[in-house]
Amino acid sequence: MVFQKIADKLSYYYRIAATGFSFFHFSAGGFFLGVAVFPLVIAWPSKKTKKKARIQKIIHYSFRYFFWQMKIMGILKVKVENAEKLKSGKSMLVIANHPTLIDIVFILSHMPRADCVVKLHAWNHPFFGRVARAAGYIKNDDPVEVIDRCVENLNKGDNVIIFPEGTRTSPDVVIDKFQKGAARIALKSGCNILPIKLDCQPRTLTKDKKWYEVAKKRFQLSMNVGELIDVAPVVKNAKNQFAAVKKLTNFFRDYYLKEVAV
């Protein structure tokens, strides 16, 4: 019993150190890509769309390496279902719930080509900002411009990832209130929706915890990619655009309340 407690405590402190090392490595990798790799890709003579595709693919493989590193260090386990749907589609608005700090990294590690909306503090970050700008991601500064940029990119055939909650889920609820941006983008672009359900057990890297407040045991991060959703039948009987946005937003939230609660 005493030896088990000592072993558990040593395991706990090891995972704090390993998590810190992984995040440091992640930041250093972002700096290296932004300073040394992406400028070369941008300078290489080719079309802008090809440069963007190459940079996003480099990010994809870098994030895969990050998760591989965390797995072999015993920090986490990963379970992914239907990931093939993330690799073949075009002009998809990908929506997901947002339980942890590393959700976007998790999704992009399985999705070679996608744009995402980046908060201002990350956009202006000395390491991650360079990566976001080089990848052609969308700066979250003005709500109207964000929606227009997302629609524009979707119409070009790009995929866009959105977290309808707008921030990480509060720890005391299943799902936070959904913002209307995802519904507006979907209706304005006419694109299909690809829903992703994310889960983390035991809960860690949540909104109320620092990165070093790790779970008592190795956590499992799970992803289940759902079926494409055609929004037209959902809003068929809406009287106007305002009603359609409200109806679609409620549909999204009801979907996740049902899925995440399972």
Look at the structure and give the CATH class: Alpha Beta
- From the N-terminal CA to the C-terminal CA, the straight-line distance is 35 Å
Poorly predicted ranges (pLDDT <50, ≥5 residues)?
none
User: What is the fold named in CATH at topology level?
Assistant: Glycerol-3-phosphate (1)-acyltransferase
- Biggest beta sheet attributes: 7 strands, mixed
Description:
This protein is an alpha/beta fold and 262 residues long. It has one domain: Glycerol-3-phosphate (1)-acyltransferase. The chain contains ten helices and seven strands. The chain has helices at residues 2-43, 48-72, 85-88, 103-108, 120-123, 128-134, 143-155, 181-189, 231-234, 241-261, and strands at 76-81, 92-96, 115-119, 138-140, 160-162, 192-201, 219-225. A seven-stranded mixed sheet has the order 1-7-6-2-5-3-4, with helices on both faces. The radius of gyration is 19 Å and the shape is globular. The mean pLDDT is 93.
